[in-house]
Design brief:
The structure is a single chain. The protein is built from 15 helices and 20 strands. It is α/β, with parallel strands linked by helices. 38% of the residues lie in helices and 23% in strands. The radius of gyration is 28 Å and the shape is globular. Strands 13-12-15-10-11-14 form a six-stranded antiparallel β-sheet, with helices on one face. Strands 4-3-9-5-7 form a five-stranded mixed β-sheet. The chain binds FE2/S2 (inorganic) cluster.
């Protein structure tokens, strides 16, 4: 009987991205059954995964380390491992499953024993060498075969231990999957996984994150003021912001499928940090209140304003998975009062009104094609958001960032590009210098580096952002390459 795992869980077990396994399934290298993978096939495809004793503990450490990186602070460490009651609930849930499997096993043994006895009894009245005798001998032989439980059972043990540390959520109807680690609520885990689940206050007050538990167990981790009626409770409704998952669960929940489904919001945020990278370029970090976060999709814009200064739209440079921390890359521009305010007067903790989101330069999640990101100067801001979001979603097998810049030696966040390339095997980074005096013809010549790197460019989806002139040059260049228009997504500054 096949023992099936979801693609997310299988990828986690063998330590590759979900996109890699999905590609192997598409290429026919790894068989799948209704979107799931048999553990035997997985072991055959990844024989090199050695399951030495400490592998499980290493994996657990990785989970905690990853969560720590996101939480950015040792004092939060104790919040990241599941608390005792969550651990106890997960162990109880797995014990129930173990008891059910043992019971089923016992039942199967009884059936086999009864079949053996019956065959023996019938054989006594049958002719020697009859089909009955052959069947009994075959059954005896099969039962006497040693069971090869070496690799496979260790993989199952690893999976069981990981289930204690993190439960998997399968969302309906989208089919999205993610893991709930530590003491995270289902909502926090979904946002960290880059999913646009419906929510409002994050605090149990508004009811906008109400979702229906179809199967599995959830546990309340925060008392909430919003009242779920008894009738709704009996149908399985819970608040995603106030519950965690105890076992693997299936949840019917509303997600924003497109930019139109996210409402316009107005939020008062505070300046958390201001980095003036040069005399003309600043990175503004804003932090929203815990109970009033900005819902947006990667690549979108928001309008910023402060007292006495007209609102102005900027691209959000951060990932929606970190929705309380918003980042903007702002150039000093004569005649733009908000930009001048950033360079001349902005203070930490200052209140900034954020209204948004706007724009439709967002990641198309219905394709797993490799991605090319092309940024011209500060067109990097929405590209950064898209890259971080794509990395969080983990569905594309490969991506490459080309950053055309006019700085003398390197782009203003060069180290980030290099860090991504160092950290992810499936990510490449190419900074390309174009002098400030470069003509559009010069830029077109620089773009030809991309088609030299990838002669079969139409295998990719391309996301690009820059000035109107740069994007127009890119369009001309790609038209000449007969690049499919439906795989090109552009945004101008
Ligand atoms: S987001 Fe408001 S109750 Fe959950």
């Amino acid at each position: 009987m096949p023992r099936l795992l979801t693609v997310s869980r299988a990828a986690r077990l063998v330590g590759v991205s979900r996109g890699t396994l999905q590609q192997q399934i598409q290429d026919g290298v790894l068989p799948s059954f209704e979107g799931q993978v048999d553990i035997d096939d997985l072991t055959r495809a990844y024989p090199q995964v050695q399951l030495e004793d400490n592998a499980v503990m290493e994996k657990i450490e990785n989970i905690i380390d990853n969560a720590l990186k996101r939480a950015r602070g040792d004092k939060l460490r104790k919040l990241l491992a599941p608390d005792l009651s969550t651990l106890a609930a997960r162990v109880a849930s797995l014990s129930k499953e173990l008891a059910r499997i043992k019971h089923q096993n016992q039942w199967l043994n009884d059936v086999i024993k009864q079949t053996q006895d019956k065959l023996l009894e019938l054989e006594k009245t049958a002719k020697p060498g009859s089909a009955l005798a052959t069947l009994r001998i075959q059954l005896d032989d099969a039962l006497n075969q040693p069971v090869d439980d070496s690799d496979v059972d260790e993989l199952m043990i690893r999976d069981t231990v990981l289930r204690v540390m993190a439960a998997q959520v399968h969302l309906m109807p989208s089919g999205h999957e993610f893991f709930v680690e530590g003491n995270n609520s289902i909502l926090e885990a979904a946002l960290s996984a880059g999913l646009a689940l419906n929510y409002g206050c994050s605090n149990g007050n508004c009811g906008k994150c109400k979702a229906k538990l179809i199967s599995g167990e959830a546990k309340i981790i925060r008392q909430h003021d919003y009242v779920i009626s008894e009738a709704e409770k009996s149908q399985g409704y819970i608040l995603a912001c106030s519950n965690t998952a105890i076992s693997d669960i299936v949840l019917q929940a509303e997600e924003a499928g497109s930019e139109e489904e996210i409402p316009l919001q107005k939020i008062s945020a505070r300046v958390k940090k201001l980095d003036k990278l040069t005399d003309n370029l600043a990175v503004v970090h804003l932090r929203t209140p815990r109970t009033d976060r900005l819902r947006f999709l990667a690549g979108q814009r928001a309008t910023l304003s402060t007292v006495g200064i007209d609102p102005v739209e900027y691209h959000i440079a951060s990932c929606p998975c970190d929705d309380r921390n918003l980042q903007f890359h702002i150039c000093r521009q004569q005649g733009k009062p908000f930009a001048e305010h950033v360079f001349d007067q902005m203070q930490n903790s200052e209140s900034i009104m954020v209204e948004g989101p706007q724009g439709n330069f967002v990641l198309r999640e219905d394709t797993t094609r490799p991605l090319l990101f092309i940024a011209f100067n500060t067109g990097f801001a929405p590209i950064k958001s898209l890259i971080e979001h794509a990395m969080t979603l983990d569905v594309n097998e490969f991506s490459h960032l080309y950053w055309f810049h006019q700085n003398d030696n390197k782009p203003y966040m060069h180290n980030l590009g290099r860090a991504w390339a160092d950290a992810f095997d499936n990510f490449r980074y190419s900074p390309l210098h174009i002098p400030a005096t470069a003509t559009q013809k010069d830029i077109a010549t620089s773009l030809s580096k991309i088609s030299k790197d990838y002669p079969e460019l139409d295998n990719f989806d391309i996301y690009a952002c820059g000035s109107t002139a740069s994007i127009s040059t890119l369009n001309d260049f790609l038209n000449k390459q007969k690049f499919p228009a439906e795989q090109l997504f552009t945004e101008t500054l």
